[in-house]
Structures are given as C-alpha cells and as structure tokens.
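Q: Structure for this?
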Amino acid sequence: VIDPVFLDSPLYRCEALEPGLGCAVSIKLETANPVRSFKARGTEVIASLLAEHGPRAVVCASAGNLGQALAWSGRGRGLDVTVVASRFATAAKLERIRAFGARLELVDGDHELARERAAAIARYDGIRLVEDSLDLETCEGAATIGLELVEARDGWDGPDGRDRRGPAQLVGAAPPFDAVLVALGGGALATGVGHVLKELAPGVEVICVQPLGAPALTRSWHQRRVVTTDSTDTIADGVAGRYPIPAVLDDLLLVADDAVLVREASIIAGMRMLLDHAGLVVEPSAALGIAAILEDPDRFAGRHVVTVVCGSNVDVDAYRRWVDAGPVPAVRNQEIRE
Amino acid sequence: VIDPVFLDSPLYRCEALEPGLGCAVSIKLETANPVRSFKARGTEVIASLLAEHGPRAVVCASAGNLGQALAWSGRGRGLDVTVVASRFATAAKLERIRAFGARLELVDGDHELARERAAAIARYDGIRLVEDSLDLETCEGAATIGLELVEARDGWDGPDGRDRRGPAQLVGAAPPFDAVLVALGGGALATGVGHVLKELAPGVEVICVQPLGAPALTRSWHQRRVVTTDSTDTIADGVAGRYPIPAVLDDLLLVADDAVLVREASIIAGMRMLLDHAGLVVEPSAALGIAAILEDPDRFAGRHVVTVVCGSNVDVDAYRRWVDAGPVPAVRNQEIRE
C-alpha cells in the first residue's frame, strides 16, 4: 500500500566520510522523495487503511515531517487532514504542510501541547487521531526501512550462506554492516527498524541516538521506566519530545541495543560533514548518527555502520547559520584523526 | 553487470520547486551513490567487459566524474585505472579519483588536452582508452536512466492502455511527464537517454541543455555539422568541451528534439533553487535543466518536466560562493511569477 516513490531508498557507502569517522559508513537516504523524510512510509499505510475502511478525516500532531507526510498521503486518497504543530516549528515544514493541502493549526507551546490539542480535536470531532510511534502503522512504515536494510545485507552475504555478490561487490564493496544508527524521537523509527533487525539480522547492533537537549526517551530506556523532562533544548526539532509513550518504551526495550545522547556541537559537526563530504543537506535529526560516531569513534573503529538519514526539511537560513558557523567540530575531528 | 547501487535512482515530483518554475517538475536523482554522478552506470559496463575479456589496464580523460566512476568500477574488478584531467579541474573530483585508487595524471590545459593525452597514453602503453560518449558503453550506461524513466512513466499510464496506478497515484500524483531535460556535455547522457525515449516513449520531448559558455555541441546540433570553439567559459565543468565527436553528433541529431543554451546566472539560480526548495546540493551541470526552465518558462508552462540531476561533486567553497552570491535570479524569478 506504500507508494513506491517512498520505497527502496538509496543505500550506499560514502567513503569520503570515512577518514573523518574511522569506520566504514553507509547512508540509507530517506530524503529523496516528495516529502523529504521517511515519515510517508507510515502515513501511506494509515491513509490507505482509512481510505478503505475508516473515517475520511484524520488529525495528527507533528513537528513537521509527519504532518507533511500525512498531508501528502491523505491528499492522494481524498482524506481531510488536520495537522497540529507548535508555532515554533520549522517554518519550511509548516509551509509544506499547507502546500500539500492540510489544515494547519498552531499551538502556542511545544510539541507536547500540540499532541494534547490533536487528541482534543480527535475527541471533539470524532475523527481519527494519528499518534506517531504509538500507532503501529507508523512503526510498520518505518520497519520497511529495516526490511530494505536486511535485504541489502543478504545481498552481501545471504542467511543461507550462499554469496549473492557479483564480482564488483566481492572485491570492492564494504563488508556487511554490523551497526545501524537511528534517530530517536517518539520511537517509531527505532522500534520499527529495530524490530525487523532483531528478528532477521540479530547480530546487527541497533543504536538509538538522541540529543542531550531532548533526552527523555533515552533516559527512560536506560532506567527502564518513563522519564519525562520539563523542557527541551536542541536544534533537532524532529526528535524533541518530553513525554515518552509507555508502550513505545516497552517496545524499545525489546529491540534497541543501546541509546546514546549527543551534544549540539556534534549534531552540527555531523550536518557539516554530510554537506562537505557527502553533498547532503540534512535536518539536524538526520545528523544524529554521524554525531554519535564523532562522539565515540573507538566504539565504531573498523566497523561498518549504516546511518539512516531520515529527513532534509530545514529552514535554509538556519541551516546556513549552522553549517557556516565557526570550527565547532575541530577539536573532535583532531582527536579522531590522531 | 551494473552494480545495483547505481540503478533505480530516485524519481520523484518536487512540488516545492513548482511555484518558481510554472510547471510540474520531477527529479531523477543520480547523486545518491558512491560516486555522486550517473557516470558509473557506464563504467560498470566497461569494467565488467574488461574484467572478462579485455586488457586489465584502462585510461580515460575526465573532467572528474567519469574518472571517479571508472576508478570505482575498476577497483572492484582489479583493473589498473589511469585518469587524465586538467589541472584546473574541480579539486574535490580529483581528490576522489585518487581516493578510489586510480593513477591521476594532470595536464596543463583544458579537457581537450586531457583527451589528447589519454589517447597518447593508450597508444603508447597499448591499454584500453575509454572515450566518453564515443564508446557505446558510456551511452548504454546512461541509457539505463532512460529505461527507468520509461518504466516509471508506464507505471502512470502503461503503453497497453492499462492503468497501473494505485489509488494514491491516481489521485495525487503528477501526469506522465512530457519532456526530459538532460545536460549536454560530450553527449553520452543525451544520446543514451534520448535513444531509449525516442524508441519507447516517442511523445516525450528530449531537450539537451548546455551552457552558453560551452556551446560547441549545441551549435553543432543546430547547424547539423561539427562546430568547435576556441575556449570555454562556464562553471559547469562537467560539460565544458570544445571538440564535439562527429559520431556522437550524428546520434544526437537522431534522438534530441532540441538543444538549448543557458546563461551562467541561470545555472546559479538553478543551483540555488535546488538547494532552497529541494534540499539538494548539485554541481553546475546538474542545474542546467532548471536553468532551461527559468530561461523559457512559457515553453514549459503547465507541462510535467523531468530533469536529470546528474552529479553533485562540487568544491564546497566554490559552491557556497555561487549559491550565497547576490540576487542573480531575482529579475528572472520576478518575470516568471508575473
């Protein structure tokens, strides 16, 4: 049911990144599609189910990417889509939600207030509430990324022991990856991808990465109970939640091998590396994986790591400020090269 | 024989570009692969044939993308690759050629001198010379882009009249494209893609785009005879040739519907639009298609145009200078919006 434009996204090794990171790095690129993030994999599932069986109206809270994706998926199926967002959300994301034809309601608070308001609208209007990461369709959509990763890995060295690689792959390509880095926000991406990997490629380490400035779900994972925070302070708008969902934490405890926190400076250094060495414009959340390698190079040294580049919706001016700023990553890069 | 990492590249509609262009625009993205250009589609064919039958050593002249691709394809198959380039070529491209393990020889002149030198090396050493656009493998590789475009178009509205679109595509997606914009350099991309389209989707207009500052093949196409120029003056390093190859011109006359020239300011405006509205870093050659729409919006108004984003190998500093420069496209954009 997922439009093919969102499936089989590029997965490729990016050797130009590697001298600065000390490990083999492959990119799973989720930005080359009509909504520039992975979120439509999930909203396609939701919208197609609704178009067949459900109510024709749907509401979600969103930091911007889910809203764009639901607007896109709903428009194609004649659904009436409402998106609730913080008025502090990334302007480019809000603009695209409107452009895709959704009704956009802004709240004077952060993403958690938007979640409350979306739930209230759903109750009041009797329409379908889409709760990112709680609704299984959002995780199932993300899980298709996991399936594609496993399929690619099987292409290198199949589970039946038969080597499916052609001559080029045999000689020139990377070894099968042994770790996947996923941005951790609400948890849909991490639980979706994690579930598939733990099921089909249990040897691959699933590492969730969250900003130090929005650590609620990571702290919850480490303490094995829901930990909330009073505020968030990060440029990674796509993953800046404060109230983890208990059921999502339960799932995450089953499928994640680790959850780590990274500093803002590392996120910016990651964005800059992806621009300078991979030619990729990414939003801060999509640089969390690179940031994690920058902060702990020893952990990844000599390994082959896949990082899911999950979105590229940025305000261009803010993006330029971030990547043009001073030599934030210099110390760290030096450390790594030594 | 082509490594799958280079095939089935993303093809997606980019609505955020459309208000500024006045037509539906889809992007065929050839940058999300290990060499960041379409050139490896061709070098994979060459290298696999050589690995089976031919000499183990190969030389090519390159502005940088062919050289990277041949280095990558050759490395995976144990070939000995030499690349000859101008010492004025884009530094990032030269660096990657070396990083992929090829021997790099620089000439103190432009790309045409590099072509002469590569031919001399091939004669002297008795190794295989790869001539971009003349060697059919380079065109066949590019032609696989055409096959993918036709396949996608058939998905919208099959040649047997059966509509293969799902509900989402029926309602929300674009109509089948009716024009394809391809960068014109040596001619491999244009003749490869053009041949497939004229064969399988003859109604689609194939429009080649070249910079005003490197117009030799476009002028040749219009005059139906080889026209050379004394120099080139363009930032689009990937397409800056002066001596069109007669056999390539013959092919181009058969498959191109038009060949147009665009100004440098339009190329920069195109690069900036792709950054601001599509989140894509592209090299100048890859912005030629958008530049062509900017220069002649009436021609494309209301149509659905595919532009092949053929490479993203830029020197980051030069790229920033280009896209950060003053309001070059302002006048043009205003005209379009009126």
